[in-house]
Amino acid sequence: MNKNNKKKVVLAYSGGLDTSAIIPWIKEKYKFEVIAFIADIGQSEQDLIQIKKKALQSGAISAYVYDLKEEFVKKYIYPVLHTGALYEGEYLLGTAMARPIIAKKQIELALQLNAHALCHGATGKGNDQVRFENVYTTFAPQLQIIAPWREWDLNSRSDIINYLKKKNIPTEITFKKIYSRDENIWHVSTEGGILENIWNQPKKDCWCWTTDPILAPNTPEEIHLKIKNGYIISINEKKYSYLKSLKKLNQIGSKHGIGRIDIVENRLIGMKSRGCYETPGGSIIVKALQSLDQLILDRESLKWKKQVGLEMSYTVYDGKWFSPLNQSLIDSMKSFTKRMTGEIVIQLFKGNITVLKKKSPYSLYSETYASFEDNKNYNHTDAQGFIRIFTLPAKIRALKNKNKN
């Protein structure tokens, strides 16, 4: 076959263990030309130039780097924050939020280059295979999907290390330190290795961003956040873009050991998995927005938001970002975000976040009504009629039960 007639596949390439092996493997098995798509979503310690160089050295015919950081923060992270979504009460969805933007931009490149196929490096045990392929089939169902982990005979990451050695492709992963990591501007996750035994305590090398809370500064730090329409716009009276504010809060939070969690979660495909997540800036923002909600939302609205957040945590985790359901959940919060404006003062100390002060022009809190001091604004006897109505079902039930006896 003439080289010019070869089919092309666009690979979502990270430069990590799996995707490094995928390039030579695809060339061997499919005889496709491999184009590496590299998404810059804020990987702090990765040199994207070197990753691009590595992709080419591994056999890709070309490599493209897309800077997606601003769009990722504004159009993916914050819509999730506005719903208050936390998967199973703790996980801030760092990996799940990143996959939709990566896959969508990967598709755009594939269509632009008239590629025949799309490829990802997600394992056959994980959630990411579903997340990537849900987006692929939503926007480009005509393209072939290649999922090496479901096809090749490399059954473990140890097998992959040996395969890369045979191909003379360098890797920083060793047999003694086999972690699976995912990093972006929002978080870093660590899985595998010693963590697969849930009785093993995470070692120091498990944590990448954050200081051990025990070793964090002995002096608390206060930060003053200003929020407008649900977005952080200033930190300690200094204005920042959405992206730069997250970077700044990551820096501050990491110093104080903020945002570490070690959880066992339910994967979409049915098994449980253990993950250690670090989300320092994100944890601060979540706490700030929760505090603001306490001021601006009435009881029924807050209840509704929690229901929306719970539902969205599953749609995002399950890779349904571009579904009508997920879009409706995002849209349902817009009336609330118009009022998510205010100021929050937070204290950080050895892994803990404490809200010290909060105010909002849309606050429903009234000191006049809430005060225990004597005032003429609230008549305590008004509660008597309310309680009679509120407890009427209980009264009727009690009378019925009494008559039965």
TrEMBL record:
Under the heading Pfam families, the entry gives: Arginosuc_syn_C, Arginosuc_synth
**Binding-site residues, L-citrulline:** 91, 127, 131, 180, 189, 265, 277
The record, for NCBIfam families, names: argG (TIGR00032), PRK00509.1 (NF001770)
What range(s) does the Arginosuccinate synthase C-terminal domain occupy? 179-396
Q: In which pathway does it act?
A: Amino-acid biosynthesis; L-arginine biosynthesis; L-arginine from L-ornithine and carbamoyl phosphate: step 2/3
The organism is Buchnera aphidicola
The record's family statement is:
Belongs to the argininosuccinate synthase family. Type 1 subfamily.
For this protein's source organism, the top of the classification is: Bacteria, Pseudomonadati, Pseudomonadota, Gammaproteobacteria, Enterobacterales
Listed under subunit, the entry gives: Homotetramer.
Q: Which CDD domains match?
A: ASS
Q: Which GO terms describe its molecular function?
A: argininosuccinate synthase activity; ATP binding
Catalysed reaction equations from the record: L-citrulline + L-aspartate + ATP = 2-(N(omega)-L-arginino)succinate + AMP + diphosphate + H(+)
> Which residues does ATP bind?
12-20, 39, 121
Keywords, ordered alphabetically: Amino-acid biosynthesis, Arginine biosynthesis, ATP-binding, Cytoplasm, Ligase, Nucleotide-binding
Q: Which residues of this UniProt protein bind L-aspartate?
A: 123, 127-128
Question: Know the name of this protein?
Answer: Argininosuccinate synthase
